[in-house]
Write a structure and sequence with these properties.
Layout (H helix, E strand, L loop, with lengths): L26 H11 L8 E4 L6 H18 L10 H4 L14 E4 L7 H17 L2 E6 L10 H8 L2 E4 L5 H15 L5 H10 L4 H18 L5 H10 L7
């Protein structure tokens, strides 16, 4: 069928929170992050590994949000929540040192040699002072091309692999997201998005949200045709 160009709303990926994390086969990882938030792993790093589509960045960002809320409720603060880019020597002063008590670093494999030294020192300080430390990368610590002492420190804590969600998990997440937004997503539409759109959950949920907005704005039913037109207009359509 010939696609129809439509004026799209801005595709917005939902804000990652621990509550919105779709567990699938990763219940142990979610439980570990929640335990870290509750103070059960103070002084010991938790390291999550898997590619970006596995949800590791979602968990790290959700942890930062939850830690910030908890610190605010307690009249405190989150001392340091950082990304690999922020901690890297190219973007921070040479005397950088995180104030604690929370240290979060995603993409540890991207750290420069200088930043690796500073992160190693920060972990040692965090172990002594009981910080809550959460790290992530694409591979287990022993397989990362990092300084040996940093890899060893990361491996000394809890190390968990994140696995990809199944299509059934993603379809259920889209259906639930639509229901919470107040509309019904037909199964054939979620199946179509999985077959012809980008398959990472963040983009899928952003497309579901856009479908709802376009449906309301243009008074179009939520159908496969609408999903097709939206994917095509957003340059997300992938023919099989």
């Amino acid at each position: 069928m010939k696609p129809t160009q439509i004026l799209l709303p801005l595709l917005q990926v939902p804000v990652p929170t621990l509550a919105s994390f779709v567990t699938g086969p990763n219940g142990e990882a979610l439980a570990a992050v929640q335990a870290l938030l509750a103070g059960e792993h103070d002084g010991e790093p938790v390291y999550l590994w898997g590619d970006h589509a596995s949800g590791r960045s979602h968990l790290l960002r959700g942890f930062v949000c939850a830690a910030a809320v908890a610190a605010g409720d307690a009249g405190g603060r989150v001392g340091s929540s950082v990304s690999a880019e922020w901690v890297d020597a190219a973007t921070v002063p040479g005397d950088w040192s995180p104030p604690g008590p929370v240290l979060v670093v995603d993409d540890v494999d991207q750290l420069s040699a200088d930043a690796q030294v500073r992160l190693f020192d920060a972990i040692n300080r965090g172990r002594a002072e009981g910080w809550r430390m959460l790290f992530a990368g694409p591979l287990p610590p022993a397989r990362l091309t990092l300084r040996g002492e940093l890899s060893s420190r990361l491996a000394q804590g809890l190390v968990l692999q994140l696995e990809h969600l199944t299509d059934l998990d993603k379809a259920a997440a889209m259906t639930d997201y639509a229901a919470r937004a107040g509309f019904e997503l037909p199964p054939e539409v979620s199946d179509y998005l999985l077959r012809h759109g980008r398959r990472d959950l963040g983009t899928l949920l952003a497309v579901v949200r856009a479908i709802d907005e376009v449906s309301l704005r243009d008074r179009r039913p939520v159908t496969v045709r609408l999903a097709h037109d939206l994917l095509y207009s957003a340059d997300l359509f992938c023919p099989v």
